[in-house]
Amino acid sequence: MTRKQWAALTLILLAGGLGGIVGSVVLVDPFEIYHQATAFIPPITNGTQIYSNAGIAKSYAYDSIVIGSSMTENFKPSQLDALFGGQFVKIPVNAGSPFNHKQMMDMAFSTHDVRRVLYGIDIELMTYFYTAPKCEMPDYLYDDNLLNDVQYWFNQSVLARYIPECLATLGRHSDTLRDDMYSWGDLYEYGKDAALRGFTISGDEVSQVPLESDPQLSQQTLLNVQYNLIPFIEAHPGTEFLFFFPPYSLARWVDFYQSGMLHYHMNQKEAIVSALLPYENVKIFDFQAQTDWITALDNYIDISHYGPWINEAMAQAICENRLRITSVSQAQENDAVIRRYVDFVRAQGAWPESFAALSEERTP
Q1: pLDDT for position 363
Q2: Spatial CA neighbour of 243 closest among 275, 282, 269
Q3: Among residues 274, 302, 355, 312, which one has the least CA distance to residue 82?
Q4: Is the CB of residue 275 less than 8 Å from the CB of residue 258?
Q5: How open is the CA angle 191-121-232, to the nearest 5 degrees?
Q6: Largest alpha-carbon pair distance within the chain?
Q7: Which residue has the higher pLDDT, 114 or 214?
């Protein structure tokens, strides 16, 4: 064999090997970038979320989406389908910034006709810089440039881990995949000991930071609304946007007080409500003053995160148009309830055995 023949054979073998690798990734496609999996169970977990979301947003059949942080991960699309009609998928970004959630909506709206968006607003995250991702996304999976998919085709984890995992489930199918994806409700301990672990309640008075005290942070909140929410609302008047403020436990509001940020975050929420209310295709729901939920620590794994039964109750309430706020004054009334309960806890200097002494109770 001549040198030219050897070189040609080497190039052919090399090209064949590389083509085989690319072909195997495209064929199996563990993160469903090119097609939805039908012959195996894809590796959709909290650890793969920023990769799996790209495939879900591109390849799944849906007309409605769930957007937000871990506060939205325990929703069940099957329940949402039954309540609202249509077909939901979850594309949350755990601990993501509003810009991360914008990235997910960009992909959903560019690939599907989206009729409804269920969006959980975490007020703390609204101070994050409005064009900055809090979670770095693999942008090569989120754009339309096929050439940069080389980072997917020759990814060591894809080749050595995720393709074998997919092949190990070959022939299997999950009827509950849409409900189960990203859900963590059965993975943790609930109750007072779990929820308050590492958290100390103090009765000390703490000076509270007002919203106007830090113009830069205040501006970020409004920029996040103006840049990461309103463009979708205005560009898609036929889409219904269902925004909700999630019910952190009362201990979280005590924590906000102890850090001096209670009034600041409440003013933030009221500013967000004021900015979103004028739009006819927007509805806003505030679950944060649901005292029977937020004082019952059996609902929580920590001071913020609630169990899936709370997600189910919120979905039902939204469907029935309950706990909707249509004015800033309603948000202010809800915040006043929270402050009253925070003051009650602080006066005890510990988590109370009962909240019966407080006369105002709200039920969903």
Answers
A1: 45
A2: 282
A3: 312
A4: no
A5: 155
A6: 95
A7: 114
According to the model, what pLDDT value does residue 174 have? 86
The pLDDT tens digits of the residues spanning 153-176 come to 889 999 889 989 999 999 888 889
Tell me the Ramachandran region of residue 66: left when phi exceeds 0, alpha when psi lies from -120 to 50, beta otherwise: beta
- Separation CA 332–CA 161 (nearest Å): 51
Distances (CA, A) of 309 to 94, 160, 289, 305, 316: 19, 38, 17, 12, 11
Question: What would the mean pLDDT of 14-21 be, rounded to a whole number?
Answer: 55
Q: Is the four-CA dihedral 67, 68, 70, 72 of positive or negative sign?
A: negative
Round to whole Å and give the CA distance between 172 and 219.
50
Rounded to an integer, what is the distance from CA 94 to the centroid of its chain? 5
Beta-carbon contacts of 349 under 8 Å, excluding residues fewer than 6 positions away, are 201, 202, 203
Q: What is the DSSP letter of 300?
A: B
Give the whole-angstrom CA distance, residue 31 versus residue 140.
13
Better pLDDT: 28 or 279? 279
CB 279 within 8 A of CB 235: no
pLDDT in tens, 342-363: 999 999 999 999 998 886 554 4
User: What confidence score (pLDDT) does residue 364 get?
Assistant: 44
**E strand map for the chain:** 64-67, 88-90, 116-120, 240-245, 282-286, 324-325
C-beta of residue 107 within 8 angstroms of C-beta of residue 54: yes
Residue 145 tokens, joined: 């440039």
